[in-house]
């Protein structure tokens, strides 16, 4: 995708890493803002729209996990966590609270650029919430209602269920291929692009989170079934609004 009109905020307290990252992304044609801490990010966000945040986990004052949680509650800003804390539990926590991807330090500059492009490609592929756009559909399954244009998910009891960008992408894959086994590799490819690593656990985390939001029981025997040795399947039939 073209980087035109794309603004990226780099929230990193290490000045050397911050400057290197800003320079790397600027050379790719992106407009980039540097923020040494969360208050600096808040001041930047108050002045202009930010499409993607590269967010360090360890920050002075309010930390990266706290900002990630706040950003996800506020809207659709994409989040790539970039941190030296590479423990798997930290990575999972970041994804659980809404980060779109996670990259450990030290990172390969090419991999960083590839991850940025993949995230932006996914988030830009869906119509903005305020404009459903031509071709948007409303999917109905087992009492649930998913609007692909507004990205709204409505529960059978009328509650609106908030989805992160990754959860929405994953659910769209399932509702557009209902009652069909989808492998983990297929889901990774369709939701995150071919830059996803084979050991990437994003799909597992997002599936777990999505199942909780759909009220699925533990064990993978509910609406989203786990097929041993095969992958995952939306067990309910799906119709679109207006179909008989």
Q: In terms of quaternary structure, what is this?
A: single chain
Order of helices and strands: EHEHEHEHEHEEEEHHHEEE
Strand count, sense and barrel status of the largest sheet are: 5 strands, parallel
Q: Approximately what portion of the residues adopt beta-strand conformation? A: 15-25%
> Which bin fits the share of residues in helices?
25-40%
Count of strand segments: 12
What is the total number of structural domains? 2
Q: Low-confidence parts, pLDDT < 50 over ≥5 residues?
A: 126-134, 194-199
- CATH topology group of the largest domain: Rossmann fold
Number of DSSP helical runs: 8
Helix-strand makeup class: alpha/beta
What spatial form do the alpha-carbon principal axes imply?
elongated
What would you say the CATH architecture of the largest domain is?
3-Layer(aba) Sandwich
Q: Kindly provide the name of the CATH class of the largest domain.
A: Alpha Beta
Distance between the first and last residues' Cα: 38 Å
Q: Please tell me the overall pLDDT.
A: 81
In CATH terms, the superfamily of the largest domain is Response regulator
Provide the gyration radius in Å.
18 Å
């Amino acid at each position: 995708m073209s980087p035109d009109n794309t603004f990226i905020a780099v929230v990193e307290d290490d000045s050397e890493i911050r400057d290197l990252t800003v320079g790397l992304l600027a050379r790719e044609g992106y407009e980039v803002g540097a923020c040494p801490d969360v208050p600096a990010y808040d001041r930047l966000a108050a002045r202009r729209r930010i499409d993607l945040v590269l967010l360090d986990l360890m920050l002075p004052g309010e930390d990266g996990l706290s900002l990630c949680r706040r950003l996800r509650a506020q809207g659709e800003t994409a989040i790539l966590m970039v941190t030296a804390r590479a423990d798997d539990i930290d990575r999972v926590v970041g994804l659980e609270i809404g980060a779109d991807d996670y990259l450990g330090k030290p990172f390969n500059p090419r991999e960083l650029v590839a991850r940025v492009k993949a995230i932006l490609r996914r988030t830009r592929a869906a119509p903005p919430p305020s404009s459903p756009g031509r071709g948007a559909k409303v999917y109905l399954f087992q009492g649930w209602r998913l609007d692909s244009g507004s990205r709204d998910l409505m529960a059978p009891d009328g509650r609106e269920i908030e989805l992160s960008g990754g959860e929405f992408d994953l659910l769209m894959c399932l509702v557009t291929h209902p009652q069909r086994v989808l492998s983990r590799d297929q889901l990774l490819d369709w939701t995150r692009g071919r830059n996803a690593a084979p050991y990437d656990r994003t799909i597992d985390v997002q599936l777990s989170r999505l199942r909780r939001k759909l009220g699925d029981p533990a064990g993978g025997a509910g609406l989203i079934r786990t097929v041993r040795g095969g992958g995952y399947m939306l067990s309910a039939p799906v119709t679109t609004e207006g179909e008989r």
